[in-house]
Structure formats: C-alpha cells, structure tokens
Specification:
heterodimer, A: about 300 residues, alpha+beta, Alpha-Beta Plaits, 2 domains, 4 strands, B: alpha/beta, Rossmann fold, six-stranded mixed sheet, globular
Chain lengths: ~300, ~240
C-alpha cells in the first residue's frame, strides 16, 4: 500500500495543474455543501422555534383545584392533536413578569404571585385544530379565559408565518440539494476526466506493467488513491473554509435571530454539528472519488488494452 | 520445462503459427530464429498469454498456459523474466525504480529491494547508471536494464525478444555473454533473433521458424502432454508391479 501511496503522490507532484483543477472543483463543492447544510439546519431551527411556541394559554380560575388542573393537563397530554403542554404556576407567572419587567424592578416588587392566574400553555400539531381546541378547553369549569397567542401584531396569523417559513425551508432544501447535486456531478465528471487523462498519459507504463505481471489492482490502486486524495483535500479545505466563514459570521447571525438558535450557541453542539457535516462529506467524497475513478479506470484500461 | 504441443495461432485469415511442437528443458539456452514475420514474437506472446492459442497446448512448469484464467495471467508473467524488443521501461522512473517495479509487482518485501537491485545492476554492468533515467542510457545499457528487471525476481525462465536488434557487434557480444552467464547459473534462456552470426557463434540449440512453422530443431526432444506422461508413468508402475 505504501508503494501505491508513494506512486500516487509522485503522480500528483508531476502534474500539479491537473491536481489543482480537480481539488479546486471539489473544494467549491464541499464549501457550498457545508454552507447549505448549515443553512438547512438553521432554517429547521427557525421553523421548529415557531412551531413549538405555545399557541394557546388557558388561564385557570383562582379557586381551581390542583387535582382538576392536573386532570386537564393529563387530558391534553393524551390528546393526539396536542404537541406540547406546559403548566405555569402563579409563582412562575410572577417570575416571568419580573423577568419581563427587569428594566423596571419596582413594577416586579409591587405585585405578589397571588394576583397572577396559573395557566396551562399548549401548542397543537396543526394550526387548523386551534379553534376546536380553544372551544373544548373553554368548556372546562376550571378555565377562566383562553388566550390565542398566534395573532401577530401586524394582523398576520402565526399560521401564515409558519406556512411561509415552511415554504422557505422547502426552498432552501430543494435549492440546496439541487446545487449540491449539480456540484457533485461536476466533481464526479472532473475526476473522471482527470483520471482518464492520467491513464492516457500512462498508457505505455500501464502496458509495461501489464506485461511484467502487474495485477489489475496494482495498476489501478495508485490512480484510485490519487482521486481519493483529491477528494479528501477538497472535503477538508472546503469544510475548513466554510467553518472559518461561519465563525466570522456567527456573531451577526446570532444577533439577528436573537433567541432562535440558528447556529448552536453551545460550543459542544456547534462542533458536533460541524463534525457531523464533515463525516457525511468525507463519506460523500469517498463515494464520488471511488465511483468516478473506478468507472474511469475501467473504461480507460479497456481502451489501453 | 516448457512445451508447445500442436500450437496454432490465427489472426483472422492469417496463420501466425501452425502446428508448433517443441520442448525446452530446464537450464537450456535456446535460440528461436527465422526471418521477420516467422512467428517468433507471437510465440513468446503466447508464452506470457498476451494471446491465447487458437488451438494446441502450452505448458510451462506447473502452468497449463493455454487454459489459464484471466486472473492467473499476472502470476504466470511474474514467474517469467521478459526482455522485450521495445524494452518496455518506464520513462519517468530511474533505472533503480524500473528494476524495483518488478519486485513491487511480485510483492517482494521492501527491505530486500536495495540489495537485490544493486546486485543485478552490478551483474549486468549498470552499477554506475543506477539513478539515471532511460532517456539517458545508450541502446546497450537499456537492454541491460531490461535484463536486470527480468533477473531481479529470480525467474527460472528468461525470454529475450530480439535483444540485440539495434546493437553494434561489440555490444551484442556483451549482451550474449551476459545471457550465457545467467544461463550458467541454471536459468533457462530463450532468445529470439534473426542474427545468424550470433546464433553461429554461440553454438546453442536452435529452433527455426518459417511461415509460422518449426522447420528445424537442432536438438529435438520427446513431446508428451503432462496427462500423457502421467498415464505412461502409471502404466510403468503397473508393469513393474505385475513383474514383481
């Protein structure tokens, strides 16, 4: 194997411009792929953020017994139309109020938890189901009032915004996958052409090796290794450039999206995301290189023989 | 031992070899002679299975060459030292690397390479040309480099296709002397040539081809296929047992 690695590196060294062309195309492919993967992750996060926001808040009557509230929560949890359920006690409501008015601490100090109603916040799997759910919850004798948070200030419904986000996410996915597919096919073809050229220039050498008893693997291995080297360099450099760009853009992106984690804020999650992308790209790079070079080698060797 | 039994080779309507029969024993030095187009090179190409015979049987050692499967061909070629008419050296590699390639092909451990390469290159008189490229060598030196590459894997049989084709008389004599030296070490040597002077001077066995047929063999040998030989041996044993 060492001999094959040495032969493939010698070959790269002797034709640096072919190598540069192949590596450049692969760098571009994996640079764009990395950015698109992060964009898909970010758009998913935005969608999830809005989808998992509590859409309905049922305020409990002051005299509502905790056991009845628990029964209501259980009923909601067991309802297949409900995605998330959360109970907010009077104390927690007071805490939320204090946090919301932290710029004016006096407001927080003036109120006691007893004036806040306990509430059950929940979201539904489909916004079309909201109206029915509101009516059902309203019918409960422990519920005082039901609020729907999906009405936005400018008169738009959350459902419209969600639909737009879903469309946007779909566009990012379809557009991204199309771009990555086109770039992958281009990389695949460039690798095939370069491998074909390499074999054409080595025609005499291949004939000689064949005559002195080289096995097909002995002839093919350095050429395939060369393609794998191009591909791995493309993956690593493309990924690294995307990561550098991402690190540079992170503060502004995080500032723009506020509490939505379009890029993981936790450093562990951040590198886990990038690590996963790199792993997938390494596998994709290997598939492109192996497939491209094996097909090209088989085609070209048939012609040489 | 090498045997050709009733070997025919056709290329379309052209008959390259017709009913070729001969046996070459281990350690022999044989010239295959004949004019251009007589079938000498075709015969060697059949031996390394660059072509398959149209009909007939070819045996080399334990190999039934005519029946070899595609994946066995590289192993056959690794066991034969080939010296080609057009050298078949790798232009972008030095003499040392060209010889090393044969070792790499045969999967010889790398720690043995240097000693073996230096030994054969000294033997062929290229000890001081080890790091030169083929383009920097003379015709005689190229021929020696090819012989070194053939020798380095220590084959039992070396065939040389017109090894003196483009060489002056002095260099031709040197190459022949080298091949004879290798033969004296127990290797079987087959040399194709149309140079009558060389053949006459060396006084070795000569198999002459003309129009694809063997027209003369100076030391003809009995010829049986391994199956026939085995059958004969069995019968001999049977006879001996009956006598007892």
């Amino acid at each position: 194997m060492k001999q094959h690695i040495k032969t493939s590196f010698d070959s790269i060294r002797r034709t640096p411009f072919q190598a540069l062309a192949a590596i450049s195309v692969l760098i571009l492919t994996f640079f764009v792929s990395t950015l698109l993967a992060i964009a898909i992750f970010g758009s998913d996060q935005v969608l999830r953020h809005f989808e998992t926001r509590p859409q309905v808040i049922a305020f409990m009557k002051d005299d509502a017994e905790q056991s009845k509230i628990d029964d209501l929560i259980d009923d909601l949890r067991n309802d297949s139309r409900i995605k998330t359920v959360k109970f907010v006690s009077k104390e927690e409501a007071a805490e939320i109020y204090k946090n919301a008015t932290s710029d004016n601490p006096l407001l927080g100090e003036l109120v006691s938890p007893s004036i806040f109603p306990a509430s059950v916040e929940f979201s539904v799997i489909n916004l079309d189901l909201v109206e029915g759910m509101i009516n059902e919850v309203k019918g409960s004798d422990i519920v005082d009032e039901v609020g729907f948070t999906a009405s936005l200030d400018n008169g738009e419904e959350l459902g419209d915004v969600l639909q737009r986000l879903r469309n946007l996410t779909a566009y990012v996915r379809i557009g991204g996958l199309s771009a990555v597919s086109i770039l992958s096919i281009t990389s695949f073809l460039v690798l095939m052409i370069i491998v074909g050229m390499r074999i054409a220039t080595k025609k005499k050498e291949i004939e000689s090796l064949n005559l002195i008893g080289a096995t097909p693997w002995f002839i093919r291995a350095p050429i395939i290794l060369e393609a794998v080297t191009y591909s791995m360099m493309g993956v690593l450099v493309g990924w690294l450039l995307a990561v550098i760009l991402l690190l540079y853009l992170t503060p502004s992106v995080a500032g723009y999206f506020g509490q939505i984690e379009v890029i993981p804020k936790d450093i562990g999650h951040f590198f886990m995301l990038l690590g996963s992308i790199l792993s997938i790209e390494i596998i994709a790079g290997l598939v492109i290189a192996l497939l491209g070079s094996i097909i090209a080698v088989s085609r070209s060797l048939r012609m040489v023989k | 031992m090498l045997k050709f039994i009733s070997v025919n080779k056709q290329f379309g309507d052209i008959t390259a070899l017709e009913d070729v029969n001969f046996r070459i024993d281990d350690g022999e030095f044989v010239f295959l002679t004949g004019p251009s187009g007589a079938g000498k090179t075709t015969l060697l190409k059949l031996l390394i299975r660059e072509f398959a015979p149209t009909s007939g049987e070819i045996y080399y050692g334990d190999w039934a060459v005519h029946e070899l499967r595609k994946k066995e061909i590289p192993h056959l070629r690794q066991s034969i030292g080939s010296v080609f008419q057009d050298f078949q050296l790798l232009d972008q590699r030095t003499v040392r690397e060209n010889v090393q390639v044969a070792l790499a092909v045969k999967n010889i451990p790398k720690h043995e390479w240097n000693d073996r390469v230096e030994h054969v290159l000294k033997l062929v008189g290229l000890g001081d040309r080890i790091d030169l490229f083929p383009s920097q060598l003379s015709g005689g030196e190229l021929q020696r480099a090819v012989i070194a590459r053939a020798l380095v894997v220590n084959p039992d049989l070396i065939f040389a296709d017109e090894p003196t084709g483009n060489l002056d008389w002095e260099t031709t004599a040197q190459i022949m002397e080298l091949l004879e030296k290798i033969n004296q070490e127990g290797k079987t040597i087959i040399v194709t040539t149309h140079n009558k002077e060389v053949v006459d001077k060396m006084k070795k066995r000569v198999i002459e081809l003309k129009g694809g047929k063997v027209v003369h063999d100076s030391h003809p040998k009995d010829l049986k296929s391994p199956d026939a030989e085995a059958k004969e041996d069995k019968e001999k044993v049977k006879e001996e047992n009956t006598e007892k």
